[in-house]
Amino acid sequence: MSDLEIRPAKPEDIPAIVAMLADDPLGAQRESPDDLAPYRTAFDRLSGDPNQHLMVADRGGEVVGTLQLTVIPGLSRRGSTRSIIEGVRVHSAERGSGLGTRLIEWAVDESARQGCQLVQLTSDATRTDAHRFYERLGFEASHVGFKKPL
Amino acid sequence: MSDLEIRPAKPEDIPAIVAMLADDPLGAQRESPDDLAPYRTAFDRLSGDPNQHLMVADRGGEVVGTLQLTVIPGLSRRGSTRSIIEGVRVHSAERGSGLGTRLIEWAVDESARQGCQLVQLTSDATRTDAHRFYERLGFEASHVGFKKPL
């Protein structure tokens, strides 16, 4: 396989990113790959925020993975900065290739580089395979994640 | 009791905020109220970020509660913007007064006002009283929260 590069997402990557978000048991119900307008608006908003890092894994010009890393300063834990990982997806053709590990390792390394003391993420309670994956990478399932739709 | 105001934190509120962060079974082990320097640095970083809202509940000039609301744009869920609540604390003298509810309701209302489609938070698995509190306020414990210290 070609070399893999993890790089910031560009506007032309949006269709590939949305296709991956939708190619997922939960994402299939809540994404709209046939209408990219809301994604383009969100992309513009992300691009202007220096604490936001929407990344893609690029293999020979093909987008095969994505994640979003957000850096969040804060007062708690002696003024710790934390990072949050959201929207991790690996293209179906690449599953089992170690790409998920590469993406999370990138996020952990980048968080350390930016001075974060903590990396966190939430995973839907039904994604038990993902939970084992994060535990293997040194994450602890120490919290309960609450969500409220508006 | 005097009227309650929920307002952005000011630099002079830092000692009161840190005292509340430390007056907590988990916070007692990880905060340093005798050394405010790291908190002042973090405060400056938060103040410069328009997506960060470090708030205090002020009753007659006394800081009696705090929370941090972060607004996070994103591509997933049709370009949804979400918000994250962190660092919720209520002064010991105010516990049971409904102030926690007021703070969370403020965060939910402000998130809606800013166009968020989702509000989320994580709570340590040991804080079972807090879990019931969030469920009463319409949050669903749908996710597992993973953390990795760096």
Features:
five-stranded mixed β-sheet; homodimer; alpha+beta; 150 residues; Aminopeptidase
Please give a structural write-up:
The structure is a homodimer of 150-residue chains. With 150 residues, chain A is of the alpha+beta class. Chain A has a single domain, classed as 3-Layer(aba) Sandwich (Aminopeptidase), CATH 3.40.630. Helices cover 32% and strands 33% of the residues of chain A. Chain A has helices at 14-22, 37-47, 76-79, 99-113, 128-136; strands at 4-8, 52-59, 62-72, 82-90, 118-124, 140-149. Chain A has a 5-stranded mixed β-sheet with strand order 1-2-3-4-5. The longest helix of chain A is centred in the C-terminal third of the chain and has 15 residues, at 99-113. The first copy, chain A, is globular and about 45 Å long. The mean pLDDT of chain A is 94. At the A-B interface, helix 1, helix 2, strand 3, helix 3 and strand 4 of A face helix 1, helix 2, strand 3, helix 3 and strand 4 of B. Chains A, B: Pfam families: Acetyltransf_1.
Query: Which CATH class of chain A?
Result: Alpha Beta
Reported CATH architecture of chain A: 3-Layer(aba) Sandwich
What would you call the structural class of chain A? Answer: alpha+beta
**Helix fraction bin of chain A:** 25-40%
State the shape of chain A.
globular
Short structural description:
Chain A has 150 residues and is an alpha+beta fold.
